[in-house]
Design goal:
The protein is about 55% helix and about 5% strand. A hairpin with a 6-residue loop joins strand 3 and strand 4.
Length: about 270
């Protein structure tokens, strides 16, 4: 069962840091891209409602907040909410879930909080930040990961010619995106080309379907051919070229779906 532990002091402290300095939290570009795409597809009424809750905060910065607070004492439980572990042969309908929560239970929880007008603006701002962040996380295949390698964190890889240690989770969190050397805004502009039919189809889906989609991508994620498997798997241009379209589509889908849920909450008549 997901329990949101609330503390005003860490929220304000980290939010001030986000607004005043660059954020180095891992995977930041992906979260910014998702939010930038979503902002292109929310209605004016939705945008106004979100601004009223957050005080006109920058949503892309706000979406990074959950990564900055998960090691703070008040928010330690939240570290479990960014992912869900499921082995290849397991099914979601009989999966033994983490009692501390996971990305699916977190999405359900904070989606419900966003719809509760009785909550304070602070609580709804926190819920908004978590919801944006976890919509992106669940679309990243390694956040719906295998237990035995901790969602790719235990799979050591050699990234191109770099000598420093990396892992497979990092490849899908940020390294593939950095290959293009684009700003998040430019990346989101280039990706945001979905047709009306695609948008409608994607926005009809629910959180569990998103998790199933990410799980289904494992064959591509773990296909390292023709790279050589040594102590560390070598990730080269062939792997990047093959998988970059996958992660880009996942980012686009996440942004479109995030906008759909926002409009459903804040502008239901406009749906």
């Amino acid at each position: 069962m997901l329990v949101a532990v609330r503390s005003l002091r860490p929220f304000l402290a980290v939010w001030v840091m986000l607004c005043s300095s660059p954020v180095l939290s891992f995977g930041a570009d992906g979260h910014r891209i998702v939010v930038n795409i979503a902002e292109n597809h929310i209605s004016p009424k939705t945008a106004s409602a979100i601004d009223a809750i957050t005080g006109n905060a920058d949503l892309d910065k706000l979406s990074l907040w959950p990564d900055t607070i998960r090691h703070l004492p008040a928010w330690q439980q939240s570290k479990y909410w960014h992912y869900i572990n499921i082995d290849d042969r397991e099914q979601f309908n009989n999966l033994k879930r983490n009692s501390d929560g996971d990305v699916l239970s977190a999405l359900e929880h904070f989606y419900a909080e966003l719809q509760d007008p009785q909550l304070s603006k602070k609580q709804r701002t926190e819920a908004l930040a978590f919801f944006m962040h976890f919509v992106a996380d669940i679309h990243q295949p390694m956040h719906v990961g295998r237990r035995d390698d901790r969602g790719g964190n235990s799979v050591e890889i050699k990234w191109l010619q770099e000598s420093k240690k990396n892992n497979l989770h990092q490849v899908w969190d940020s390294l593939i995106l950095k290959w293009e050397n684009k700003t998040p805004l430019k990346y989101s502009q280039d990706l945001d080309t979905a047709r009306a039919g695609q948008i409608a189809q994607w926005q009809q889906s629910h959180f569990l379907q998103w998790a199933k989609e990410s799980k289904a991508l494992r064959n591509q994620v773990y296909n390292f051919s023709p790279q050589i498997r040594r102590k560390r798997t070598v990730i080269g241009p062939a792997y990047i070229d093959r998988n970059k379209p996958i992660i880009e589509q996942r980012l686009l889908m996440a942004g479109i779906r995030l906008a759909g849920y926002f409009n459903r909450i804040f502008d239901p008549q406009g749906q």
